[in-house]
Amino acid sequence: MTTRKTIKFIRDYMLGMAVLILAPQAWAAEYYVDSVQGNDANNGLSATAPWKTIAKINSRSFNPGDAILFKRGGVWKEQLIVPSSGNASNPITFGAYGSGAKPIITALDAIPGGKSASAWTNVSGNVWYMALAADPLRVFLDGKEYGRAQTPSAPNSTLRFGYDSTAGRLYLYAPANPASAYSTLEQSAARTHAMRMSNKNYITIRDLDLRGGVISLELAESNFILVENCAIGWYVGKFGILGHGYGPSKVCLNNVIRHCLLDSGSRLRSPYHLNPEIPHDGIKLRYGCQNWEIHDNELYDWGHTAIYVTSESGYQTKNNKVYSNYISAANIDYGRGLAIDGPDGTCFNNEMFFNSVIDTTCRNQINGNHNLFYYNIIAGMTNVTHMANGTAQGISVEGYTGWASHHNKFFNNLIMNCDEAGIKVWGYTGATDKYANEFRNNIIYNCGRNSKDNYRNIGIVIESHATVKDNIYTNNLVFHPDGITNVVNYRGTAMSVAAFNNQNGNNGNTIMNNLYGDPRFTDSGQGDYTLRADSPCIDAGINVGLTMGMANVPVPFGSKVDIGAFEFIPVPQPPVVQRVVPE
């Protein structure tokens, strides 16, 4: 497990670089909303005459340049549907006023009928059920979240609820009728969204706390949306933010998500695999998302993927940049950091870089075609306890379920302390060909720590299969701190890095100039993964066309490119002063 000091170092290093400064802004008209003192009969044009409800906002139309401001400390158990668009010069802003906590807009609410004793039927013992039209996704009893039973009709004292979608029944564990056994019975999906927009453009969302729902924030076929300094996804059932188009010609363009906290609020460890995982993705860019920037966010405890870029046939998800985000899933049983997926020609030219993925349990899954994954830090991955197979590969290239997996580039990543291999290229029946992918200048350190797949102490795994061929592996450094030298498994055979280089040309692969040796981090115990002056990584990389590395250090900083996520910067030495002795 990566230490808290390591997490703090990387988080401070990556996210502490940027400070969001918002200049004062004058809007065309300002509308104020106060959940306690407001009144919808007011004109809403001042903090002394605010509106009260989101329903009032949903029923209005607004002009470009308007601002709708929610009072800090307020809570709205409603669903905000953005009614109007701004324009390029004058976006419409949804924000906050006053002092205190961010305004909360939440879809978490009471289970309808849950407090009516007649709604419940006793099955046997402490198991009860009631009719419920839709899956509650997450259930909170007396304010505490409880897990979902594997058999819907058999909850217990630990996994206290189940949902039978065929019968439309919610099952609960309770020592008496749930209406009296619990003071409050709540579900995350009382409303489908906290906030949604469809076919809207030029909207700014700032300083809000969007909670619960199937989706906390949905951007459907909406363009030039800025989301900044928000908290999104607490108590949500599936997606923190979901962006997508609707048809092959319908897209979702030029949106920015920055300086946000996306925390699912889930702290449960299920003893079995939920399918689908709940909560699901922190940020999901689905079909038709193009030219997005997702940067300088923190994402915690997402049950599938923190940031997922994907597409499907007939759409294009392309030219998106995901960078400088901090991701962790230390408190749940199943969670990955980053993923890219899509059939051939549908998910391409996406970039993920400068991200820190710390203490997760499921492989970073990079497929699609012509995508770039570079200068990322992946550390502290552990296998999912309840799954028989290993899940904790640092970077995984699979081509599963028909996804493309070619011409992707993996440059200068630092992958360390993973239970499974740092890099794995898979081959199995039904997978597409993995070819023309490039793995260059990566450090793979102390991987295969606790493998379930018989790859103990192995840093790189390249499986023996007809779909795995014609890839490039050059100038990577692989090291095990215990001095174990057989750290590569090439097509079923464990071997040293030198023997791996000797496989050059086999199966169409280019395998050259890979190194084995201690990378000599400055102070890995304190989370400092910069290079010491005696590191074998210095000037041992190959130029891959990148010009800027971590912390905006030019690449190369010296005469040649370094291996790993940090270019070596020499410490300036004081000049040598020679003493002149008079004759």
Features:
single chain, 14-stranded parallel sheet, globular, 583 residues, 33% strand, 13-stranded parallel sheet, mainly beta, 4 helices
Any overview of this molecule?
With 583 residues, this protein is mainly β. The strands form nine sheets. It has a 14-stranded parallel beta sheet with strand order 1-2-5-16-19-23-27-31-35-39-43-46-49-53, with no helix packed on it. Strands 3-6-17-20-24-28-32-36-40-44-47-50-54 form a 13-stranded parallel beta sheet, covered by helices on one side. A 13-stranded mixed beta sheet has the order 4-15-18-21-25-29-33-37-41-45-48-51-52. The chain starts with a helix and ends in a 52-residue tail after the last strand. The protein has a domain at 109-187. It is globular and about 80 Å long. The longest helix is centred in the first third of the chain and has 12 residues, at 4-15. It is 4% helix and 33% strand.
